[in-house]
Automatic annotation (TrEMBL):
PANTHER family: NITRILASE-RELATED, OMEGA-AMIDASE NIT2
Enzyme kind, highest EC tier: hydrolase
Organism expressing this protein natively: Rostratula benghalensis (greater painted-snipe)
Domain CN hydrolase: 1-246
InterPro entries xref list: C-N_Hydrolase, C-N_Hydrolase_sf, Nit1/2_C-N_Hydrolase
Gene name of this polypeptide: Nit2
Pfam entry (one): CN_hydrolase
Name this polypeptide is given: omega-amidase
GO biological process: asparagine metabolic process; glutamine metabolic process; oxaloacetate metabolic process
Amino acid sequence: FRLALIQLHVSAVKSDNLQRACGLVREASAKGAKVVALPECFNSPYGTQYFKEYAEKIPGESTQKLSEVASECKVYLIGGRSIPEEDGGKLYNTCTVFGPDGAMLAKHRKVHLFDINIPGKIQFKESETLSPGNSFSVFDTPYCKVGLGICYDMRFAEMAQVYGQKGCQLLIYPGAFNMTTGPAHWELLQRGRAVDNQVYVATVSPARDEKASYVAWGHSTVVNPWGEVIAKAGAEETVVYTDIDLNKLTEIRQQIPILSQKRCDLYGIEMKK
């Protein structure tokens, strides 16, 4: 099946972001994409100072638009972190997924909050405004089972291993690595998660905006289960297409059968919720 990653240039105007995102979903559908993903924070600037201002309920304005365009185009649509979600007085970094009938299939709240301090380079603390999610998020398509994470979630190998145990063959991480962590770890982490679990891994970033207070690295990428980069964007707004070959995945798992060779008598990953 064909996967499309929409590396969107995000402005401060929510309505413009929504309109352009929906237009690019239509373009991707016209080019044969069956699964389409938007980047983290696609309809608002990324930054703790913006989260409360742009927050919405789910369902709400943004998710309604995503539902409508998914139904119109008959695609599985991963809505990036469409919005900061407001629920019960708390804010969450939330990704919604809609099926070809417009129904919401999954809602993933970012589990690991991005609280870092690299002296002289970048300091960021999502927990100043956001609360963490507490669950894994998996949805089914006619092609394969898909596991969801958001950006910083990708650094935690245990989460990807749980998705592998649950039968996922594709992991999708909407993300917005920055100009420090992006060149250092963006591709490295994707290849690691793909090889460790013998799955496809796709990451979808906003396009780079040098004038923004938080500058995203870009480089939306797809990695196959062998650890090879099979599609990759630059920094500009673009749509990345790749064909996901599940026969290739099966072949790799047969050649190097690590999933059946795990020593579960010595170690294991436990999902608590």
